[in-house]
Design goal:
By secondary structure, the chain is α/β, with parallel strands linked by helices. It has helices at about 40-50, 90-100, 105-120, 135-150, 165-185, 195-200, 220-225, 230-235, 265-270; strands at about 5-15, 15-25, 30-35, 55-60, 65, 75-80, 155-160, 185-190, 205-210, 210-215, 240-245, 250-255, 260, 275-280. The chain is built from nine helices and 14 strands. It is elongated and about 80 Å long. The termini are far apart.
Length: about 290
């Protein structure tokens, strides 16, 4: 297994900068989710890690190796795409085995790894079928299985569940989370779905406009967002953001004609508001009718 590090990584396409200087560390065996709106740079960051795009500046490290100039096949990663990318003329068994055969692995070892992955993903009964004969969920399992048989240092997932219906997406989230914990492989997972991010990731990295906004465990981001973007992006419905004013030496909070007393912890939180003007974030579940 391996730690992944992005050190001051940038990506430019001509005059357009899509990833601004970014630092991020994914711990060994961690499940890290990259989340943000469309165009925020999360898939580009994953492609930089996979070697499908070249880094414009900075370094990417997997384990103890800087991989900036290594081709994808030498990075010891396995990627699962949104489109499954299965070979339609091959059976499930042949799809699972293809990458191993290309690398010259002995036939007995290939068969063993295919059998192990099929058992783990519960697709043993469809090994002799072709992709067109499978359901969407089965195709997704085959795509994941093709990554598993590689025994890579890092798994990369690029919105792998977006083609599934809502009910199947929920069950596959649970399966992928269980699978990652069982395999204990460092995993970087990209999604635009904040519910998916909050329910799957051990830590979540929120991006906007190619910039990292906040990184942390899901509940930390939910309860203590670093800025208004994270506060409004995470949560369904989103956090209510209300302009307020601190009064009576930090003892009270005034919001739209309503005065509320502040506890000790809340007073400490507003000490930095030198002007007395604050933006108050309130989650819907924190509100009570009285």
């Amino acid at each position: 297994m391996a730690q992944v590090r992005f050190d001051r990584v940038e990506k430019r396409f001509g005059a357009t900068t899509v990833i601004r200087p970014l630092d991020l560390q994914v711990e060994d065996r961690e499940f890290m989710v990259l989340v943000g709106p469309s165009g925020c740079g999360k898939s580009t960051l994953l492609r930089l890690l996979a070697g499908l795009e070249e880094v414009s500046a900075g370094t990417i490290t997997i384990g103890d190796r800087v991989v900036n100039h290594l081709p994808p096949k030498e990075r010891d990663i396995a990627m699962v795409f949104q489109s499954y990318a299965l070979y339609p003329h091959m059976t499930v068994r042949e799809n699972l085995a293809f990458g191993l055969k290309v690398r010259g692995m002995p036939r007995e070892d290939v068969a063993q790894r295919v059998s192990e992955a099929a058992r783990l993903l519960e697709i043993e009964g469809v090994l002799d079928r072709r992709p067109r004969e499978l359901s969407g969920g089965q195709r997704q399992r085959v795509a994941v299985g093709r990554a598993i048989v590689r025994h890579p240092q890092v798994f990369l997932f690029d919105e792998p569940l977006s083609n599934l219906d809502a009910k199947l997406r929920v069950s596959m989230r649970a399966e992928l989370t269980r699978l990652q914990r069982r395999l204990a492989t460092t995993t970087v997972y990209v999604t635009h779905d904040q519910v998916e991010a909050m329910t799957m990731g051990q830590r979540v990295a929120v991006l906007k406009g190619g910039e990292l906004q906040q990184v942390g465990p899901p509940m930390e981001l939910y309860q203590r967002p670093a800025n208004t973007f994270v506060a409004s992006f995470l949560g369904t419905p989103p956090m209510n953001l209300l302009p307020g004013r601190i009064g009576e030496g930090g003892q009270t909070l005034h919001i739209d004609g309503v005065t509320l007393p502040l506890g000790a912890e809340q007073r400490r939180a507003v000490l930095a508001a030198s002007s007395g003007e604050v933006l108050v974030g309130v989650r819907p579940e924190q509100m009570r009718l009285g």
